Amino acid sequence: MKKIIYLNIVAIILLGMQSCNIYNFRGANIPEDVNTFSVGFFNNEAQLVNPSLSIDFTEKLKTKFQSETTLNLKSEEGDYQISGVIRRYEVTPAALNAQTGSAQNQFTIVVNCEFNCEKYPEKNFTRDFTSSITFDATKEFSTVESALSAELTDIIVQQIFSAIALDW
């Protein structure tokens, strides 16, 4: 719940900055001579495998760049090249209860992203992007997995987008 409030506050601040012309979010820090991007398939190398996660994540990343930049998608060798792997997809106990054991569980996704730009090699990076959320341990993970997975992948896609397109 705290993360949702935090993200809402950040969104309000960012929208305020945009409306005051302090910062333009459409291609904010993308050099003018960068016109294309490509996204490699993000394989799922986590121990716990969600069969649709790789496809969903890869497509969300493509959609984010298509909808929020003027870059054109290429199947490979774009000016911006994005690839990576899903390293962790796991549920762990987050809070314990003396009577029942686990009171809350933490669901975590970690994606390792490699970003390359031949025109601007100083922008290149390889790093992990992580997002977690806690949920009530009385709920079966299978009943909340889809919604929680979608929420966490949206957050990680935004983190990657910010690191590349906004230079944060």
| CATH level-four homologous superfamily name | Lipoprotein like domain
Round the Cα radius of gyration to an integer and report it. Answer: 18 Å
Tell me the CATH topology.
Double Stranded RNA Binding Domain
Number of domains: 1
Largest sheet: 6 strands, mixed
Report the strand count. Answer: 6
Encode the helix/strand succession as letters.
Answer: HEEHEEEEH
Q: Supply the CATH class.
A: Alpha Beta
State the gist of this model.
The protein is of the alpha/beta class.
List the helices and strands and how they pair.
Elements: H1 2-19, E1 36-39, E2 43-44, H2 53-68, E3 72-73, E4 80-97, E5 101-116, E6 125-136, H3 141-165
Parallel strand pairs: 1-3, 1-4, 2-4
Antiparallel strand pairs: 4-5, 5-6
Helix pairs in contact: 2-3
Defining traits:
168 residues, Double Stranded RNA Binding Domain, 3 helices, 35% helix
Explain this structure:
This protein is an alpha/beta fold and 168 residues long. It has a single domain (31-165), classed as Lipoprotein like domain (Double Stranded RNA Binding Domain, 2-Layer Sandwich), CATH 3.30.160. The protein is 35% helix and 32% strand. It has helices at residues 2-19, 53-68, 141-165; strands at 36-39, 43-44, 72-73, 80-97, 101-116, 125-136. Strands 1, 2, 3, 4, 5 and 6 form a 6-stranded mixed sheet that branches. The longest helix is centred in the C-terminal third of the chain and has 25 residues, at 141-165. The radius of gyration is 18 Å and the shape is elongated. Mean pLDDT is 85; it is low at 17-27.
